[in-house]
Amino acid sequence: MAKLMIIGCGGVASVAISKCCQNSDVFEEIMIASRTVSKCEAMKEKLQNTTKTVIKTAQIDADDVENLTKFIKDYAPDAVLNVALPYQDLTIMDACLAAGVDYIDTANYEPEDIDDPEWRAIYDKRCKELGFSAYFDYSWQWAYEEKFKKAGLTALLGTGFDPGVTSVFAAYAKKHYFDEIHTIDILDCNGGDHGYPFATNFNPEINLREVSAPGSYMENGKWVEVPAMSIKREYNFDGVGMKDMYLLHHEEIEALGRNMPEVKRIRFFMTFGQSYLTHMKCLENVGMLGTTPVEHEGQMIVPIQFLKTLLPDPASLGPRTVGKTNIGCIFTGMKDGKERSIYIYNVCDHQECYKEVGSQAISYTTGVPAMIGSMLVVNGLWKKPGVFTTDEFDPDPYMEALNKWGLPWQVVENPVLVD
Ligand code: NDP
Questions:
Q1: In the chain, which end has fewer C-beta atoms inside a 10 angstrom radius, N or C?
Q2: Dist. CA 88 → ligand 1 center (Å)
Q3: Ligand 1 close to Cβ of residue 40 (< 6 A)
Q4: pLDDT of the residue at 136
């Protein structure tokens, strides 16, 4: 029986909260703490008569480490689940350390202000040394390793679907299917249709930053960077059909590259329709994806934040999104001296998710693993001092929990490979 503090109350959080409330045997009590307390209260109102889990709410600014530390100390949870934004990763990790509480999140750190000269100097050095230029990377959070170890605390990073489940799939493939893995292709397909000409399925600012960045993959331990959307493939996805997909930089490549150095090539592909790409290119060309404040009629505005205000709230896409997602990994390698290839994936239906928790499948496929990661930390199965990604624990209890909590997976031998 555990008490979990959940920070953030957006699209992903609302699924994680619903799933914790379905799992009252583990989550006896939850605290929903976010910037806009009315959203936390609305979630409480929606769920409190459906669950044995006691729900508390609070207003909190997770950028304010001092207040947040005091708040965590006063509430004394068993762990804090950060489903706010990647901008808050470090402040919440600092507060967890100061309060002596385990930390869990779904996305690695990136700064809100990429013009900050102190951050920029470190970023420029990393781009040169490592060879990829995404704004997000694990170095900031891996730097907390000694502090968490010394404090005897666990930080579980990136327990969403990708990253998160995809890295658990890699650990599972390594444990049960291969003596050596040679290549990993992570394929993220969203075959859903929300009926809008343009919308993002999770936080627009984070999403558009991610997909407009140069693509990259890891080969023989080194990063290879290519222009955004310059590598395109077609794949026939189970449950969805034929889709165009594009190579992107993605954070699990970095963690898997470090933790499974024997893998020769790791790539990530995501499907996009032509309309999405055309809109994004146009917005980029006119400067609407800019993160540097500009003056508009005497007021400073950040273009991408203004765009977020105009776009549909991802949390509102649930009722109108139809179709399925298919996210998984294709592994090739050797077993007992013979070549082997397998594909582990989950197919998730947008409308089924909406019926169950009132959200579309992108929030669902992230919020369920956020609950599962939190459960494994608080019940001690995935608890050890230090900072870890999801490929660094025994994958079996996580894989079992995916089947139980709404994200069943399958393993296909000899799948069609991506060239
Ligand atoms: P939303 O924008 O819907 O929600 C973010 C929430 O965080 C909002 O409730 C927001 O408050 C709150 N918040 C923002 N800043 C603060 C702050 N300073 N203090 C307290 N609360 C704050 O985002 P999503 O739910 O779409 O995404 C949540 C996280 O999940 C992101 O980190 C995203 O990158 C990650 N993600 C991970 C995926 C994976 O597979 N691993 C896939 C998809 C998303 P307010 O309501 O006031 O805006």
A1: C
A2: 9
A3: no
A4: 92
